[in-house]
């Protein structure tokens, strides 16, 4: 399968890294990326083919659009005459299938995907929405790529992809933020950087492993840590007093709103 990535930034690197570790061959991949250092790194790490924007796109089975939402229109319009029979996968936040199809000159075989960076270690989760013009074979091809880098959830509405963007697309950043905070808390307890990191990382790794291997839900597992009148109870009370749970829900809601806003802003026809 010949894969072309347009954009070789953070998310493209995560997807590519995951695919390469699953046995995809660098020689079957082309990455179009303006930054010479990134091109060199991609070539060095995975022996993929690389080229600058403006290079003619060779016949591809799948073209993955991995540029920022704000860069997508120019990229899609330049790509339109060169798509051939490729399936186009966009990973951009917010950009709707109808908008993308218009920018691509009416190309109908599209899948909008929202992956996340744990794809790099095949532990990603992606939301996917196929356009009306995508065939069953297109869905299977998209599924094959996404399943190689983690789990896949197919949805049938654009709004659900905005929600997935807010939860699992942006979600790794929320988790890293919590890890940073726990590390800072360990430093405040007087531990050095290495020990603080070890305590925070292993607590996360252990808790998630326990949760994923347990028939108890997260709330029950939390109660099992929280002894009546003990230390955890005091900490959870502090979190509740500061409305941390409500803040996390509000944060995800703000992310979903931004995804919708990007879709509206960038999808507007300038003649309207
Ligand atoms: N990062 C993440 O966790 C996730 C990101 N996404 C989506 O993935 C997309 C990419 O995000 P991310 O990887 O973080 O962004 P990056 O900025 O890291 O990557 C985008 C890359 O595309 C390059 N680029 C710009 N113009 C062109 C062009 N004409 N042709 C080819 N490449 C070009 C950029 O170069 P330059 O910097 O010089 O402009 C940059 O290297 C976004 O649409 C985002 O919404 C989706 C899920 C998760
Ligand atoms: O922050 C962003 O806009 C992208 C989309 C989801 C994760 N990163």
UniProtKB/TrEMBL annotation:
<keyword id="KW-0963">Cytoplasm</keyword>
<dbReference type="GO" id="GO:0055129">
    <property type="term" value="P:L-proline biosynthetic process"/>
</dbReference>
<dbReference type="Pfam" id="PF03807">
    <property type="entry name" value="F420_oxidored"/>
</dbReference>
<dbReference type="InterPro" id="IPR029036">
    <property type="entry name" value="P5CR_dimer"/>
</dbReference>
<keyword id="KW-0560">Oxidoreductase</keyword>
<keyword id="KW-0641">Proline biosynthesis</keyword>
<feature type="binding site">
    <location>
        <begin position="66"/>
        <end position="69"/>
    </location>
    <ligand>
        <name>NADP(+)</name>
    </ligand>
</feature>
<keyword id="KW-0028">Amino-acid biosynthesis</keyword>
<feature type="domain" description="Pyrroline-5-carboxylate reductase catalytic N-terminal">
    <location>
        <begin position="2"/>
        <end position="94"/>
    </location>
</feature>
<feature type="domain" description="Pyrroline-5-carboxylate reductase dimerisation">
    <location>
        <begin position="158"/>
        <end position="262"/>
    </location>
</feature>
<comment type="similarity">
    <text>Belongs to the pyrroline-5-carboxylate reductase family.</text>
</comment>
<dbReference type="InterPro" id="IPR028939">
    <property type="entry name" value="P5C_Rdtase_cat_N"/>
</dbReference>
<dbReference type="Pfam" id="PF14748">
    <property type="entry name" value="P5CR_dimer"/>
</dbReference>
<dbReference type="InterPro" id="IPR000304">
    <property type="entry name" value="Pyrroline-COOH_reductase"/>
</dbReference>
<feature type="binding site">
    <location>
        <begin position="6"/>
        <end position="11"/>
    </location>
    <ligand>
        <name>NADP(+)</name>
    </ligand>
</feature>
<comment type="pathway">
    <text>Amino-acid biosynthesis; L-proline biosynthesis; L-proline from L-glutamate 5-semialdehyde: step 1/1.</text>
</comment>
<dbReference type="GO" id="GO:0005737">
    <property type="term" value="C:cytoplasm"/>
</dbReference>
<dbReference type="InterPro" id="IPR053790">
    <property type="entry name" value="P5CR-like_CS"/>
</dbReference>
<comment type="function">
    <text>Catalyzes the reduction of 1-pyrroline-5-carboxylate (PCA) to L-proline.</text>
</comment>
<dbReference type="InterPro" id="IPR008927">
    <property type="entry name" value="6-PGluconate_DH-like_C_sf"/>
</dbReference>
<keyword id="KW-0521">NADP</keyword>
<protein>
    <recommendedName>
        <fullName>Pyrroline-5-carboxylate reductase</fullName>
        <ecNumber>1.5.1.2</ecNumber>
    </recommendedName>
</protein>
<dbReference type="InterPro" id="IPR036291">
    <property type="entry name" value="NAD(P)-bd_dom_sf"/>
</dbReference>
<dbReference type="GO" id="GO:0004735">
    <property type="term" value="F:pyrroline-5-carboxylate reductase activity"/>
</dbReference>
């Amino acid at each position: 399968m010949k894969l072309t990535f347009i954009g070789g930034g953070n998310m493209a690197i995560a997807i590519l890294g995951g695919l390469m570790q699953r046995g995809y061959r660098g020689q079957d991949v082309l990455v179009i990326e303006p930054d010479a250092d990134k091109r060199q790194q991609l070539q060095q790490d995975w022996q993929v083919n690389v080229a600058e924007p403006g290079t003619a796109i060779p016949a591809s089975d799948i073209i993955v659009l991995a540029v920022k939402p704000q860069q997508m229109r120019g990229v899609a319009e330049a790509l339109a005459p060169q798509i051939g029979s490729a399936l186009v996968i966009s990973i951009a936040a917010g950009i709707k299938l109808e908008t993308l199809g218009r920018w691509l000159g009416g190309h109908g075989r599209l899948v909008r995907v929202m992956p996340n960076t744990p794809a790099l270690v095949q532990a990603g989760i992606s939301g996917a929405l196929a356009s009306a013009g995508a065939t069953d074979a297109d869905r299977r091809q998209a599924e094959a790529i996404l399943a190689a880098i983690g789990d896949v959830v197919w949805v049938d509405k654009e709004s659900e992809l905005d929600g997935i963007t807010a939860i699992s697309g942006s979600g790794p950043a929320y988790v890293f933020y919590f890890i940073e905070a726990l590390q800072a808390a360990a430093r405040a307890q007087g531990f050095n950087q290495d020990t603080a990191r070890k305590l925070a990382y292993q607590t996360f790794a252990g808790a998630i492993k326990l949760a994923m291997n347990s028939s108890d839900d997260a709330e029950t597992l939390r109660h099992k840590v929280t002894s009546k009148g003990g230390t955890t109870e005091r900490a959870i009370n502090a979190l509740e007093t500061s409305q941390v749970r409500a803040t996390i829900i509000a944060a995800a809601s703000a992310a979903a709103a931004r995804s919708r806003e990007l879709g509206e802003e960038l999808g507007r026809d300038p003649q309207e």
